[in-house]
Amino acid sequence: MTNEASRPASPETGQDPPRRDEDLAALLERLLAQVPDRTQKDLAAETGIAYPTLNAWMNRTRGTSRIDPEKLRVLVEVFRRWGVRTTPKEFFEAVGRPVPGPSGDEREARLLKLYRQLPEARQRALLKDAEAMLQVSRIV
């Protein structure tokens, strides 16, 4: 029997299992270590988060329970642009918050991906259904 800390990497991804015991400081430190050419200052500049704020999170001198969810999503986006694999779930768990559903952009991207996989006739039918749903929502 293996415990959480000694569980092997996931065979599907080759990645380590998620670290559920990581706080935001540990998560940021681990992710920044994956991009050695980037610094806290780079992260602050790219995310629009003030450097003193980011530094305080990393030094655990400022609480993280009230961080704006959009700031967490921006951190995810920046790390992904830098080639680091991470998820919003990791960030929300690191600050002890429930993971919200997908953002509007993520829902739109998913809808578009599904739409593009449909045959043309089904795309037309989906558009008609969406237009009908819109009409009904205007009445209600």
From TrEMBL:
<protein>
    <submittedName>
        <fullName>XRE family transcriptional regulator</fullName>
    </submittedName>
</protein>
<dbReference type="InterPro" id="IPR001387">
    <property type="entry name" value="Cro/C1-type_HTH"/>
</dbReference>
<feature type="region of interest" description="Disordered">
    <location>
        <begin position="1"/>
        <end position="21"/>
    </location>
</feature>
